[in-house]
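Morning. Coffee machine broken again, so started the prediction first thing and wrote up yesterday's gels while waiting. Chain of 316 residues, entered below exactly as on the submission form.
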Amino acid sequence: MKQLFLTLIFAIIFCNCFSQGSISTIFQDESNGLNVTPGTTMVSDAKANGGTCMFRSAGAADGTFWAGPYIPVAAGSYLFQARIKVGSNSASSSLFMLDVVSQYGSVVHSAIWITPNMFKANNEWQLITIPVSIPHGITNLEMRGMNFQPGITDVYLDYVQLIPSSVSGFYSEELTISGKGDVGIGTTTPREKLSVNGKIRAKEIKVETANWPDYVFEEGYKVGTLKGLESYIKANKHLPGMPTAKEIAENGLELGEMVRLQQQKIEELTLHLIDKDKALQNVEIENKLLRAIQLQQEAAIKKMIERIDKIELKKL
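Came back before lunch.
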């Protein structure tokens, strides 16, 4: 999740970079400029570009994985991409450094440590993308894999490329930024400013919403009757003003609006409860009065019976 967040930040940065005009993509692999260093070998791979790729085993010595060519690059903003895979993605320790440099390594334009847990699967090719800003024309730019750390896992490199950041959109199954600026995580077709195909965990989510339903407690608000509510529910199978199950299935649930609607229903229910409580109190008062009258009647009847009994006794 941390790596995905960093990738998202990088992607947002490059989307705001300026246009590169006619600058074209620079592509390099072992066939046109990447230098295989001691400890790195070439191996066959059917899914690699050209059927071969660079390989450095976990048992190789530390040092440089590969060194890029000295190439001229115009000033501007780019995406630096390297197609890499690892034998095992379980470790979180640094494997090697991916960097873009000039002046024979004395000027670093961008760099990131590659760790095995950046990769979603073992032995599966994945593009690692980082932004690069070149402040002025460079005649000797290098794209390198440095400081390989032995004993962690096998690693493969297919190719590296430098892409002008004016390319419209950025699309992958992990992270997508559309040409309209919509961001997708786990989806290549975001429909909102942020679409996430998966679970989200956060300590707190703050949703801004307008027209909070305190108006329910204003004088003159018509809350309706429970009988009318019952009739509506029987006819429509949902509460009035609330979206239907079909609408939620088709369009999703707007969290801010749903919380607002639920608060409105809670406040209306509170008014119903207050009204029913008042009615119940009136019933209790009436019951007490009826009970008092009943007791008085019972006492009067008792006295009447006693008088009748005395009269009957006198007759005897």
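Confidence is low (pLDDT under 50) at residues 8-22. Going to sketch it on the whiteboard this afternoon.
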